[in-house]
Amino acid sequence: MSRFGPIFAVASLAFRESARNRVLHALLLALVAACGVSFLFAWAAGGDGTPRPTKIVGDLTLSAVIFLGTIASIFLGTNLVFQEIERRTVFSVLARPISRGGFVLGKFLGLAGVMAVALSLMSVVFLVSYGLAGGSVSLHLICALFLIYVELLVVIAVALFFSVAAHPIEGAVFSFVVAIMGHQTSSLKDLGATVLQRAGEDAGLVATATDKFLYVLYVVLPNLERFNLRGTAIYGFDLPWAQVGWSLIYATVYIAIVLSLATLVFRRKVL
Predict the structure, then answer these.
(1) How far is it, in rounded angstroms, from Cα 61 to Cα 30?
(2) Residue 236 burial (CB < 10 Å; 0-12/13-18/19+)?
(3) What is the average pLDDT score of the chain?
(4) What distance in Å separates the CA atoms of residue 43 and residue 48, rounded to the nearest whole number?
(5) Which of 26, 27, 201, 237 could cysteine-pair with 232, CB 3.0–4.6 Å?
(6) Is the pLDDT of residue 67 over 60?
(7) Where are the alpha helices (DSSP H) in the chain?
(8) CA distance 123 to 146
(9) CA distance 85 to 91
(10) Which candidate, 115, 104, 148, 93, places its Cα nearest to that of 258?
(11) What is Dmax (Cα atoms) for the chain?
(12) Can you give the residue ranges of every domain in the chain?
């Protein structure tokens, strides 16, 4: 067996376990409901006798895809490793020729595969509803959906880290906070600069410390807005290919760092 065989075995097991979770089924049903609500909003915005605005349906439905995908990634990710420890099945897995780092990587790959399937189904629902509203499939939409998946991979990595480091409930809360703040990281940096600017030349210790703290948060938290092409896709703006490329590099580096930290914590964890 190759050195990657045990990792793929863990990934396969994680895939099957997560795919059977009813959260994914509820997610698809919730997305269908969100599509119906988006049509209702579009009809209300269009007025009597006016066609339903395509952009409202597309924007609301795509936002629902991002939100529901994030919730599913957090819920499944924060339970993945903890359940193995709780059921004591982790001992039989680690008794095989696989390191704890390989175990974490396998779990990540398994959940990434599940979310790829789930997001594909969600994308079909989105494209159908968008087409019924008068929209058409474009490269912008495909690229926006792909970057949503990349964003979910970052969220999965964060959720796995908290799955190793904390209880699932605490991990879910922390992961959700990180996901929310991940869309506000640029604001954190600007807020720190504003604090210093208003303090003036006589900026005190509190103002300086606040600026440094906000800058640390800006660096540590994932910048999830890098993956947001919803406006570009729906409203027909030019596709920023340079941003797409740098976003993929950023996601790869960030995921590698977070999984490395998760492995370090897991190695120090007493089972």
Answers:
(1) 11
(2) exposed
(3) 83
(4) 8
(5) 237
(6) yes
(7) 5-19, 22-46, 54-86, 89-94, 100-132, 139-165, 168-181, 185-199, 205-220, 230-235, 241-268
(8) 10
(9) 8
(10) 104
(11) 67
(12) 5-179+229-268, 183-220
Owner of token pair 């996901």? 179
Token pair for 187: 């604001």
Q: How many CA atoms lie within 13 A of 120 on its CB side?
A: 6
State whether residue 203 is helix, strand or coil: coil
For the stretch 130-171, pLDDT in tens is 888 887 888 888 998 999 999 999 999 999 999 888 888 888
Question: What whole-number distance in Å separates Cα of residue 165 and Cα of residue 171?
Answer: 8
Cα separation, 169 vs 163, in Å, equals 9
Q: For tokens 């409930």, what's the residue?
A: 169
Query: What's residue 202's pLDDT?
Result: 59
Q: What is the pLDDT of residues 43-65, one digit of tens each?
A: 776 644 444 577 888 888 888 89
Structure confidence by residue, pLDDT tens digits, 186-198: 787 777 677 767 6
One-letter amino acid identity for 54? T
pLDDT, residue 152, reads: 95
**In this structure, which long-range contacts are made by residues 25-28, counting pairs with CB atoms below 8 Å and at least 24 apart in sequence?**
27/68, 27/69, 27/71, 27/72, 27/118, 27/122, 28/118, 28/121, 28/122, 28/125
Average pLDDT of the segment spanning 25-34? 85
Residues 115, 73: contact at Cβ < 8 Å? yes
Instruction: Tell me what pLDDT residue 267 has.
Output: 84
Asked whether the CA dihedral 68, 71, 75, 80 is positive or negative, the reply is: positive
Q: Residue type at 103?
A: F
Question: Are 75 and 154 a contacting pair, CB within 8 Å?
Answer: no
Question: For residues 47 and 125, which has the higher predicted lDDT (pLDDT)?
Answer: 125
